[in-house]
Specification:
Length: 368
């Protein structure tokens, strides 16, 4: 955009210089041509229309009128000289200059009207493009809603059928583990059963939270204090890795109407995802600020990033690129943001890694 404006300014300056130099050149031809060569003077007078019309097309009504007045003033010495020899011809010259001003003004008016029509057409085109983009986004959201509905139906039918035998398996393994006569290899097998049972139970819990989300319980949220709580919880996911967590907040953050537990869960999911994306260490920055009258929460990491070709799939349920991942962390975070009437975006950092941004309204909005 700046380059386009610079080219336009350069073109306008060039056009202005051309109009001025052309008018002065024609006036010089009048001045240096003998008064007896009337036909040449008539030709020179007609040439005044060229810079006048050009100025009107480039700069509108004011440009055309100013160019015509400049031509009339430049032509005035020739009219004065002619009036001494042929007064009638001088009157014709004056009338011609008046006609030149009328032509310059009318051409400028038409040029201004055409320019306004083009601007209106451009605004309409941009608005139609924006509406088309919104329709595409709504269509994608409809397809996503259909997938989520199917997942919810599946969860409703399988959740209780899976959870009860899972607890039975875990309980039986616990009873067997208390037997002091167990051999080491048997105890190792029981440990595996318990760990896998816990992992499946965790997956099932996330599955149920995603498939049957509860409505938000709105209250005022102190975002600064909530970020402190998120970082304290996320520290446990760091373990022995060389990952550092840092909070960055803007001064005088306003309160946000929302469900603090759900917003905390959303940020914690994003923070844990960022930590897991940096096996070699790095820094995770959890930040908050105000943008366009809304609260924007960001989680920025220095990890391996996400390939562009799969970036539009990361919020889909069960889509994951991590070994042992459930594929529900980002899906749940996306769902929570939507329930609060916000938008969750994922953008690649210029220096590597990703930034997840949640844009939340400050006040309560209709939930999805």
């Amino acid at each position: 955009m700046p380059q386009t404006l610079q080219r336009r300014d350069a073109f306008n300056r060039l056009g202005l210089a051309g109009v001025a130099s052309g008018t002065l050149l024609i006036s010089s031809l009048h001045h240096f041509t003998d008064l007896s060569h009337v036909h040449w003077h008539n030709i020179f007078q007609v040439l005044y229309y060229i810079p006048t019309v050009l100025a009107a097309l480039l700069f509108g009504f004011r440009g055309g009128l100013c160019a015509a007045l400049l031509a009339a003033i430049s032509h005035l010495p020739y009219v004065v000289q002619t009036s001494r020899v042929n007064p009638d011809y001088a009157i014709e010259q004056a009338v011609e200059m008046s006609l030149l001003c009328i032509v310059g003004g009318l051409t400028g008016v038409l040029s201004d009207r055409d320019r306004r029509q083009r601007r209106d057409l451009e605004r309409t085109t941009n608005r139609l493009t924006e509406v088309y983009r919104e329709l595409e986004q709504n269509f994608d959201q409809m397809k996503r809603a259909e997938r989520l509905f199917a997942v919810g139906q599946l969860a409703a039918g399988l959740a209780h059928e899976l959870r009860n035998p899972l607890w039975s398996i875990a309980g039986a393994a616990g009873i067997l583990e208390r037997n002091a006569c167990l051999e080491a290899k048997h105890r190792e097998c029981l440990d595996i059963i318990q760990k896998e049972s816990q992992r499946l139970n965790r997956l099932l819990t996330e599955f149920l939270d995603f498939a049957r989300p509860r409505p938000p319980k709105y209250q005022s949220i102190d975002i600064d204090a909530l970020l402190d709580s998120v970082i304290q919880l996320a520290v446990h996911a760091v373990g022995h890795s060389a990952v550092q967590l840092r909070k960055l907040t803007a001064p005088d953050l306003p309160l946000v109407e929302g469900d603090p537990e759900m917003v905390k869960q959303m940020l914690l999911n994003l923070a844990i995802n960022a930590i897991q994306a940096m096996p070699r260490g790095g820094e995770v920055v959890v930040s908050a600020g105000v943008q366009d009258g809304k609260m924007i929460l960001r989680v920025r990491d220095q990890g391996c990033g996400i390939a562009p070709e799969i970036r539009d799939k990361i919020f889909n349920p069960f889509f994951t690129t991590k070994d042992g991942g459930t594929g529900l962390g980002l899906a749940v975070a996306h769902q929570i943001v939507e329930q609060h009437g916000g938008i969750l975006r994922a953008e690649a950092n210029s220096g590597g890694g990703m930034t997840f941004s949640a844009l939340l309204p400050l006040g309560r909005e209709t939930t999805v």
